[in-house]
Each structure stands twice: as C-alpha cells, then as structure tokens.
Design brief:
The chain contains 13 helices and 14 strands. It has about 375 residues and is of the alpha/beta class.
Length: about 375
Amino acid sequence: MPKAKIKRLYLIPILSKALDVLELLEQDHAPVTLEDVFQRTKISKTSVYRILKTLVHRGYVAQSQNGAYRLVSRPRRLRFGFAAQSAEMPFSVAVAQSITAAAAASGVELLLLDNRYDADIAIQNAEAFVKERVDLVLEFQVEEHVAPRVAHILKRADIPLIAIDVPHPNATYFGVDNFDVGFEAGLLLAQHALRDWKGKPDWVVGVGLSEAGSFVQSRITGAFQGIRDRLSEIPADRFVQIEGRGRREPSQLAMADFLSDKPKGQRMLVAAATDSSALGVLDAARAANREAGFAIAGQDCIPEVIAEMRSGQSAIIGSVSHEAETYGPRLIQLGIALLRGYAVPPYNYVRHRVVTPEWLETEAGPD
C-alpha cells in the first residue's frame, strides 16, 4: 500500500506560544504573574518574559505596579507625524530613513512631511499634523525664529512635540550636545595645526548656521574653545565667523568672499556647523587653488565627506558623526514613553564620534 502523505503544518512556534499566552490571559479576569504564566503554559520562562514584554509594548497587555499582567482592549495604532528637515540634505535623509524603519518595526504609523528648509512650510506642516490628528510630532526644522510658532500650533492641539537638534518651546529635545561636538572638532583642528603647521594658523574660521539660533551656533563656539585650549597664542582677531546656512552653496560663496582679500599661502583652520558647509568651503578652496592651506572639520559624517576623507588627498581632516542611524529607534521609543505618561528627560543627547581618515583606515569605518 502507498504510504500516506504527511500533511505539513506551516506554523511559527514563537507565534503559537504568544497566542497561548494571550488565550491564558483572556481566560483570567484577574492579573496573573510571570510565574503563573510559566507554570500554566510550560513555555520557557525566558520566552514568557519576552512575549509579555512585547505584548505590553504593543498595547495588548498592561503590567501593574506589582508586576502582574492583564489583557486590555486593543488600542488603536499610534500615529506619529514627522517633519523632515529637507529631502535635499544628506543628514536629514539619513535621519528620515532611520525614523521610518524604527516606526515600522514598532508598529507606529508615520505621517512624513518635508519642511524643505523653509519656515513657512514648517508652519504649514504643523497645521497639517493637527488636521490629521496625529498623536505626537517629531519636528526637524532649523529656523529658530519659527520654532515658537510651530510649538504653539501643536500645543493648542494638545499634541506632544519632540524637537530634533533645534530646541522648540514646550518640547522635549533630542539631538547632539552642540557645544561638545564643536569642542571635539576644535581639538582635532588644533592637533592638525600643531602637527603640520607648528601651531601657527593664520585664521580660524567658523562657518555657522545662525538661523538655527545660539544653541546650534554653539558648535562654532565649542570649536573655537577647543582650538584656544590647545593654541592659546592665536590672537582673538584671528577668530572669525562667516555665515554658511548649513548648506553647500551659501558656504562656498561665503568662503570665496572671505578669501578674496587674503594673501595666498595663508593657513586656515575651518570649523563647519555641518558637513554640507564643509563641502562648500572645500569647493571654494579648490576653486581658488588654495586647498593645501586648509584644514576643515565638519559635523554629521555624510557619505560625500567620508569619501573625501578616504581619498587621502582632501583638506577635510575630520567630521563628528552624530550617529544618524540611532535617531529612529530612540525617537520612537521616546515618543511612546511620552504618550504613556512616563517621565522623560527634557534633553536627550545622542552619542557622537570623531571620524578621521586615520580612523577610517584602522577601524573600517562607515561607507
């Protein structure tokens, strides 16, 4: 007789275990402990713990202060609004990708709008979030003067706000410690001057982003302080700031104008508020055939700057990575915590790391 075919069951074991836990909680009208669930389901205690924590995170189960668990009615899916800085800015794109992936992994619906580096559009997007009734807004826009208006629109609608990199009134801040990352860039520039120029640059130039306000401008303040700590004999009048708006073309034009009356052969330490500005400065130096007299440090570690450093022939000697890939998971977790009423710090700083050509060679750094 032919053998009977065995019917395969295409099951997912951990999902079956999670459903066993849910069904047990559904049977009990009183809260149950992790030990109760373990004893009654015979699922490993580690798996039970992870299943319960996942169900709590996703809103299917609540945990009381004494640690017991109970089934709750399924809440609607959380919906976050995210206003990106600009789809044309590499760092903004990296942050947006990180947030989009983290929202999908956490089951959070994301309404993504682009501020397009424009104050009026940022206001329009804030109004759109109110109209769409999102639960929380992640705001990434650099115009300090419009921050109170954006925050006011969302506050009137009782929508919590997390401000990315640029503080907003009544908002939870998330981003870098701007003075600290600037200070790190300044130390790097000073080290270059000591090693290659006998500690004697002719100019120290900060390429700022004044529209973002004093908080972000402290990247330049920090850089100047880092340089002064190592090169104390540089006269105060040799420290100058020019405006680059955090973008490539304005930074190129501003540096070209600065160089127009400076003799060739002078040496420039340049601290840029963003990598886009750093690239603009590099463009100006190359156009004037003066790259050999430049040492440039940026912020953000965008791919084009990484490529410049890997070339081994660029005046860009370093960039401070703000670890854009970590923004998404931490921002989504922070948003969920706010909506669940947990206490969160008013300022939430990200990690940063100084990246140099030498580091890229020895550590096989980012592509």
